[in-house]
Amino acid sequence: MKQPSSAFTVWRARWETIANNRKALPILLVLGLLLSFAIPQFNLVNPYIQLIIMYVGINIILTTSLNLINGYMGEFSVGHAGFMAVGAYASAVLTTQVLPSELNPWLFPLVVLAGGIAAGLVGLVVAIPSFRTRGDYLAIVTLAFNMIVKSIIENIEAIGGPRGIPGVEKLTTLPWTFFWTVLAVWVIRNFIYSNHGRGVISIREDEIASDLMSVNTRQAKLLAFTISSFFAGIAGALFAHLLQFISPRVFDIIKSTDILIMVYLGGIGSITGSVLGATIYTVLLEVLRPLGMWRMVLMPLVLVLLMLFRPRGIMGLREFRWLIPLQDLLGSKRWRQKKEASDATPAN
Amino acid sequence: MTYFLQQFLNALQLGSIYALIALGYTMVYGILTMINFAHGDLFMIGAFFCFIAAGLLKLPFVPTLLISMAGVALLGVAIERVAYKPLRNAPRVSAIITALGVGLFLENFTLVFSPYPQSVPTLIPNQTWMLGPVSISSLQIIIVLLSIGLMILLDLIVQKTMIGMAMRAISWDKAIVPLMGVPLNLIISITFAIGTSLGAAAGVMYAQAFPVIDPYMGIMVGWKAFISAVVGGIGNIRGAMIGGFILGLVEIMVAAFMPSTYRDFVAFALLLVLLIFRPHGILGKPRPQKV
Amino acid sequence: MPLLQIDHVTHYFGGLCAVSDFNLALESGELVGIIGPNGAGKTTIFNLITGVYRASKGSINLSGTELVGKSPSHITTLGIARTFQNIRLFKDLTVLDNVRIAHYSQASYTPWESLLHVGRYQAEEKRIIEHSMELLSVFKLDHLSDELAKNLPYGSQRRLEIARALATHPQLLLLDEPAAGMNPNEIMQLMEFIRWIREDFNLTILLIEHQMRLVMGICERLKVLDFGKTIAEGLPWEIQNNPLVLEAYLGEEGGEL
After folding, report:
1. Which pLDDT tens digit goes with each residue over B199-251?
2. Which of A310, C145, C171, C173 is the most exposed, having the fewest neighbouring CB atoms within 10 Å of its CB?
């Protein structure tokens, strides 16, 4: 009885030391970047696994950005795939119809950015109903938005209508996926640990009280929706240039449901949770592939069981220390130390 | 004009199906303030029960309908007991995600046994009458009358019986009502049984009207019925009926007078416009927020 | 000129007149109480002042600026802060975050600086943390700064709510039943405390109360409301002996005096 528990303590202590050593973070990032170049260069893992890694990255972007609305702001948006569609189509139109194809690899970052901006602008529009409606009614608005986007695309012949755009160039590479994923996670984390992000979180806690504590709730909602949809658009652009074929059906409500599941699996209000949720879900789906159709029966069961035993998801409202800015982590402690120091020296 | 009347009949048929499903959403929402996203898939199960009873067991219409309603009601109650009840005090959204999970499970479980679409035999002798220039089929009459009958029955239950009174009381205050001796769990189970069996009835009628069924048929129809419930004012039973008919009317009319690919677009855009002017639906009332 | 001038404010909920023809002139530095039985419209007046409801008729003026029609957050930035009858803290956030959020309008950095953590972000965040911690230490809550608000004992939650309100730098503080749920001993402490924050933070205070002991003890002036109408006003001892008040208010809740 004693042996395992002491081993556990040892491991726990080791883990604490690692977790407290933030210097490892930049090293890991550089390592990750190098690996993202090395893997395709030297074929360190087979192309199938490379593909899955890229899907994991895209799903992390989608999950983290949706978590901003559903987890941090406490709304229930069910139309994230709609924003993804805007980004995917905007970027795919650029690479297939507008830009000369020999320039595509060079302009790809700008193309992805354009996809993000297009989706962000649309997000601005969707934010406006959120001034008036909340909760279930806002959920309907986002749902309707998803359907409307799909329906509009189906009705524009210039972008392929219901048939979609085939033959999108495969421009999404491992290094680019790594870059955009890190950027998305970093920016959303920055936003959350800022004045504006705290405003967004206070809306989740109590919108009326937050308004009465001087939080400009409209501004906070606009920001949250725009940022969230911007990154959904980025993910959509990467997705389009990985899948190499997009059609309205790809971005229907089922895709949105997938993203929702990843968010709640990982846990609301947690970036760590979103990274974990997206990774676990994507990898698990692939690992269970040999089960054939039973895989799709098993996955929902896993989700239901998780909700029953851990209703807040894996990391609900908790965050891994490395992701919290030092100022937030230590601010109060530093203040107390300073105060003790000044209390110790008698004032003259 | 004839064309319009003809389409109006079709709208009534589609609308009554939406309304029946919407009732299940609204009843559950009224009592638990929870969106039962598995409801559309229970509608699909209802259609598959119809396929089993009519196609495999060769039963006539009425027993098929009853078997389907009873089977789905049992399933609905079981789902509530196993998956939703433990989450009654958890964050609201956990229950919603659980419902999504249950829905996916039902879809994919059915898919394992029925990888290809199934066609359902016709149970209602197809007869057409001419009302002036407008033709009306026996199936349309049965669907509309049966739906309206079920709705009237439900309205009577909710308005006139003790069970209905208990339902309305619970939707008003879930904390206090059990203290008055109302068996909360029993009433919730009954609500699920009624709501899901109405969905099953809709499933059977849908399978009769559009006889090719597949495991994913409940997704889109379910979301649209949910929208009907919202349009009417979610939690409001009469609102759900009105919402169902409105959505059916809009969809059919758009498809009749515009390119049919505009159907979803117009339906959802209308929904948004409605929500801007009446954020709580047609019959819904905003719950006062105390400051 | 008075700090807060309320003229002929009337508010309807549907057909029900919740507040009718309410007038109040609040001089800078005053401490005034509004009393009245349950449902008399006291909290409604707070909601009208802070912009949660928009007055059906009348005007509310804060040192020359009309408040009717402005959003709650705007009114708060103009210098009015409040607490709530039933505590409305951000329960799942830390004590420090509760106070930091109330700095929203004072943080002078743009969303871009938020996204990239550049520019004034570091300096401003440092300042907000320091200011928040100082405020918390004044309220003897600094050692609890990393606790979740919901885990605080009731009395501390009440104090935190006031600290959070003061973080918005108000000139006028509205206290909605601050003594609710307190025993006589705690009420004595609360009276001291209110007097002291008024001095220390240079505040004008308007408070709603049920507890006569508190109102009579610290308010300089009182207004008595019944069914939305002002039925009496004056000094505490005048109110105590006003037959109208005795009839309307004490007849119903005499036990509280």
Report:
1. 999 999 999 999 899 999 999 899 889 889 988 888 888 899 899 999 999 98
2. A310
Task: Show the tokens assigned to B120.
Answer: 């359902």
Please give the sequence-ordered ranges of beta strands (E in DSSP) within chain C, or none if there are none: 4-13, 16-26, 31-35, 57-62, 65-66, 80-82, 172-176, 204-208, 221-226, 229-234
**Was domain C1-79+170-257 assigned CATH 3.30.70.270?**
no
**Domain residue ranges in chain C:** 1-79+170-257, 92-169
A192 touches chain C (CB under 8 A): no
Domain assignment of residue B161, given as a range = 2-122+133-277
Nearest residue in B to A136, CA atom = B35
Nearest beta carbon to residue C129 from set A227, A331, A339: A331
In this prediction the ipTM stands at: 0.91
**CATH number of the domain to which B259 belongs:** 1.10.3470
Q: Identify the residue among A80, A304, A309, A314 best suited for mutation to test binding to B, counting B beta carbons within 10 A and taking the highest.
A: A304
| DSSP reduced 3-state for A86 | helix
Domain regions of chain A by residue span = 46-252
The number of domains in chain B is: 1
Distance CA B219, CA A258 (A): 14
pTM for the full predicted model = 0.91
B35, closest residue in chain A (CA to CA): A136
Task: Say if C43 is an interface residue toward chain B (CB within 8 Å).
Answer: yes
Among candidate residues A221, A68, A229, the one with its CA nearest the CA of residue A146: A229
pLDDT digits (tens, 9 = 90+) for C198-241: 999 999 999 998 777 788 889 999 998 888 888 889 898 888 88
CA distance B241 to chain A (A): 18
Distance (Å) from the C-alpha of residue C109 to the closest C-alpha of chain B? 31
What is the three-class DSSP state of B62?
A: helix
B to C CB pairs, distance under 8 Å = 5
* pLDDT value at residue C255: 44
